[in-house]
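User: Can you predict the 3D structure for this chain?
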Amino acid sequence: MTTSSTAPSAADARLSTGALAVTRHLLTHGPATRGDLGDYLRVSPASMSRLARVLVEEGLVAEEVEPVPGVGRPRQILSVVPGARHVAGCKITDTTAYGVVCDMLGDVKATARAALPARLADGTVPVTATVQVLAQLVARLRRRVPSLDGIGVSLGGVVDNRSVVREGTFLGWRDVDLATAVRQRTGLPVVITNDVTALAREQLWFGAGRTHATFGVITVGAGLGFGVVREGQVVEQLIDNGHLLAHAPVDGHGPLCGLGHSGCVAAHLNRDDLERHASARAGRQVTLAQLVERRTAGDDTAITLIDGAARALGHLAATFAGALQTTRIVLAGEDVATFAASPAMAETVADRLRPGPHETQRCRLDITVTPYTFNDWAQGAAVTGIQHVLGAV
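Assistant: Here is the predicted structure, written as structure tokens:
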């Protein structure tokens, strides 16, 4: 295995501010002429020519000459070379590491997965053994795509300086310098990020960010997650890690969440809480999948619980959008499709958007629903890794 002493640093491959701006624009908006890029980025023709030359020499960008009918000068069209960089992305859950390799456009070229080591007596997942699993996972991916340029790792919790896991929610970790450990085992540049932040970064370049510089991401699965993008910049770490939003009151007479709040968002949407409420009503253990089946069969309790969750999600999306002053919210995660499919969510959002009798300004909210598999989460980590290698993170 290559060691860190022989690997190039991440800074060695990073682009200048101008070159990064050109590359990012081409990635997010597609091929463009030198002239159009210069106008959009407010770069002089001479500087644009220099940046284009550097990017072509680096192999990141290709340039084609498109003849113009008549006697006009031919247009020089720049486009990103998808295979110029490849980065591995790893999403860590409480039991499994999911890995992908993505090219410059974020397209997945290979996938793999591996079980994490068994928990220790204190309930924590052993760090050293987990690093070994990640290194082995990357090695497997490297056999499929040998030219890896970096690694992005995402997990639930609080991450500092894109390196140290201050709080690994599902792993029992505290103050773990994961980036250094993985870099030493693989010899590649490594960036560590919160998993929802990684999805926000992926959406910024390849999703909602193409049309909205400010937007929010809400994930619904084992827990609730939140990501914020303001004016084209990802907020790396939320002050309260989403706690205030997750426990915003929806129904004062509703079910209790794990913290004892009556009818808060989490009480309706957290999978554990929802399954606990369903099980209590049924007198036996009920999973979310079983609850969905029972709702389809017309069971009143299942309809009440899932529609209640859908209304809570609608209120959450509308509140989040209002706080961010955006018209775009992205809903993602393993469970989101279940609740977004209920008419109760759309009805709730429509009611929140309904103007008063004397209001002339009309509110609009575009909600994108993107159910995510764990490989999709890993793709978000890979896109973060691409941005890190290029110098955008």
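Residues 85-202+375-390 form a domain with the Nucleotidyltransferase; domain 5 fold (CATH 3.30.420.40). The chain has three domains: 4-80, 85-202+375-390, 213-326+335-371.
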